[in-house]
Structures are given as structure tokens and as C-alpha cells.
Write a structure and sequence with these properties.
Elements (H helix, E strand, L loop, with lengths): L3 H11 L1 H13 L4 H13 L2 E5 L6 H11 L4 E5 L6 H5 E6 L4 E6 L6 E5 L6 H13 L1 E4 L2 E4 L5 E6 L12 H4 L2 E6 L5 H12 L13 H11 L6 H15 L13 E3 L3 H17 L7 H12 L4 E2 L1 H5 L4 H11 L4
Helix pairs in contact: 2-4, 3-11, 10-11, 11-12, 12-14
Length: 329
Amino acid sequence: MVDINEINEKIQRESAFVDMLGVEMDKVIVGQKYMVERLLIGLLSNGHILLEGVPGLAKTLAINTLAKCIDAKFSRVQFTPDLLPADVIGTMIYNQKHEAFTIKKGPIFANFVLADEINRAPAKVQSALLEAMQEKQVTIGEETFKLPNPFLVLATQNPIEQEGTYPLPEAQMDRFMLKVVIGYPTKEEERKIIQSNISPEGMPKPNAILNPESIIKARSVVRDVYMDEKIERYIVDIVFASRFPKEYRLQKFEGLISYGGSPRASINLALAAKAYAFIKRRGYVIPEDVRAISADVMRHRIGLTYEAEAENITSEHIITEILNTVEVP
């Protein structure tokens, strides 16, 4: 038998750093609580995140601040159409002095990698990043190197510009645990942003309150969060409803969905729900945890047909309908 009280106490104890991390992030990032929470979920679930939002919404600043709070190595790669795989993962360089090839590691060898405007790079660069994200390793020449642990790729893309971009293929999109869409700050938040940027003291600096080892430990604790069989079935129903809408009384989406969530969607939904419960300092998953994270896990995993686009139906609209229709345990 599972002792819920014991798990609850353990989670309460181990998740104390979440509030401290929030305080440090708030020093630099005004508002954007949703984005910061999703960054934490990705970090605690060992998943990568795709951020979509117009320029200037603190996407780069958020991950840089998170890296500083965790005292981890951060690197940024600006994706451009002329980027080569070697610019990301590294290459072999001929050393004349030793008359031999030496390996020069690329910026991918960091705990936090910001892939800025990922959809600007051609397919060969995107696929080089794919091995790193999936296998947590990189092959240069004949040697394979393990990437540091924790390893989190945070990719950004600009939804406005489509010229000179290479849309991410479905297989690559599926590698991202969450796709987070960020909106503008409120008027009050924007006023605070102006104040912090023009103050004579300059931007406040966060303190390092954690180390990479504490994140690895927290990840194992997240997996201890209790998930009932009913919740597991609920997750499976949500994903299956995106594949076979007719079976869930959603006939209206029959010709609008070209493909639904993959088994990776079910796995990520379960992991993200556990991480969400952990952040809320609870030792068990409730249906609200699954519902809170569903849109971020599913929005990039539902393919729309031309008919759906013609009718202005988005994947968010479909997810909302699924959550309203599938029976909650």
C-alpha cells in the first residue's frame, strides 16, 4: 500500500526550494509567472521546452536567470540560415603542433542551452540538435560524448516572421515536452519593467541558491509523486480523444485533425502533471494538475487539416473541447 501522508511530507520537505527559486526569479523577471512555472516543470521533468512569443518578452532573460539561480552552465546559440551542425555540437580541428586532430566541443555542452529562433536554421542543424535532445549525447567524428546533467534545451520561435524560416518538422516538435505560448505583460507589469530597466542601480541580480546536483535529486523525488490509476486512465483518454475524436462524442473534429498526440504525449502529460503537483507542494496528482498542463503538452502534437485552418480552428480550441468532454475521474 502507498502511504500518501508519508509521500506528502517528503514532497513538502523536498519542494521547499521552489518558493526560494520563485523569489530569485521575481527579482529579474516581472510577471510571466506562467512561463517561469513551465520552465520549472520542464527542468524537473527532464524535458525540453519550445517558447513561442514576439520579441522582447524576456524569453532569453528568463532562462539565463534560471541558470544563474542554479549555478549551472548556460550557453546561447543564435540560429541563422548559414549555421552548420559543427557550430552547435563542435568539430574536429587539425592541430599542426601535435600533427593530430583534436576535438573542439560546441556550445551544446552546457546545462542550459538557449536555441534562439530555432526555426531560422536549416534541417541539418535541427537534426544535429535532435540527437542531443533525445539521446543526451553528441557524436563528433568517431567519438560519442555524454552531455552534462541536467541538460535542458529551451528553443524560441517568433510567430510573426515566416520569411527565411524553416518550420520545425513534426518529429522534432514531438521532442519538446512543452510548447509554451507567451503573451504581453499587463499595464502594471510593464510599468515595473520600465522602472527596473531605468533605475540608477541597474537590473537586480539573482543569487545562486541551488546547484545542478540538487535538481537531479529533485527529479527523482518528482517521480515519487503518487499518481492513481484513474488519473493514468484520464491522461490516456485525453490523448486518445485527440486521435479518435468520434469515440469521445467529438464527431465535429473528425475531418479537422490530421494526427493526434503520440505515446510521448501521454508520457509527458504524466510527468508534467507530477512536476506540477510537486511545484504546488503536493504528494499526489489530481485531475486539475493534468488539466492545467494539457494545453502546453498537447498544442504542438495535434496536426490540423486545411479544413481546420480554413475554419480558423486551432489546436487550443480542440484541446479545450477535449477537456470539456472527456470524463473527469
